[in-house]
Specification:
alpha+beta; eight-stranded antiparallel sheet; three-stranded antiparallel sheet; 20 strands; 23% helix; globular
Length: 340
Amino acid sequence: MTRTFAHVALTAIVFIACSVSAKAFRHPGDTLPPRLVTDLQGGCYEGGSVIENMTNEQLVRLIDFLFELDSIPMDLVDEITRVVKSRAPKTTEPLTADLIDNMFEQDSLPAMKYYSVWDTKNTVPVFDLLTKNDTSFILELTGKYGKYTHPFSGLVTSNYGWRDSSMHNGIDIDLNKGDPVVAAFDGMVRIAQRAGNYGNVVIIRHWNGLETVYGHLSKIKVKPGQIVKSGEVIGLGGSTGRSTGSHLHFEVRFKGVAINPRYLISFKKEELVGEVVVLKKTKWGMSAYPLNAKMYTVEKGDTLFEIAKRFGTTTKHLRELNGVQGKYMHLRVGAQIRIE
């Protein structure tokens, strides 16, 4: 991991560790415990007692060692933080508890309560990160998290869903090579590289836990670890990777699971469907809908099954709510149906 990434997660720790005491460097010959180095290089970490028994110089060496890793084990960061805070001088004005808390509040990696690591290599995890206890989430999309900006104003050429016997996990938006593509929300760049079918791709993790993916770019304009604002140019449109023509492949994910972007965004109006949404795990994947939604306006191409997937319910329940007997429910574009 480069210093750019680690700086965000460990700035406060480095500051405190280096300020603990002048005695921190009285053991110039100290090295990291071999077992800990082996564990970290092998992608695992076990050992709170190891951290507890390290000298202050070893802690600083460990923090520097973390800069070289591809991902940061957050349980290790938490353990370092606990130990360093316990050794910090209590009477030093710059290191008050309030200041330390503020530093971690302002300089933490985005949404780490949902993610165990900050992965700078893998575009998406091999397995989704949802657990059996992850059933529903309420996410604020704007407000304290900034605003929404449409990544590119263009014609949708391909929707989310099955296509050519494979799952298309995003929405394709037509553009010309070189057209500016912008960040949808405020966040931090996790991936900015060439990656297989995506071609040149940028992945941004947002403070509320969502990640947005921007694929097939001709040029990348940001770097991993960079904080970006909604509407900031993050790349130029193109046709890199598995692409048959210039377009933007745009995805929305939560904990590694793809969400139909239309569940969150009206591509016709180029705005969010709501400022606060409910994410709900279902047997079909992840549903998403505005908080307190009671009615839904039927759009062109809607089916009862797709609406049921969107709101995490069943077609039978929708028919019962709308007083429909039998298995067929007529959907008229523009009509409103009750969904809860």
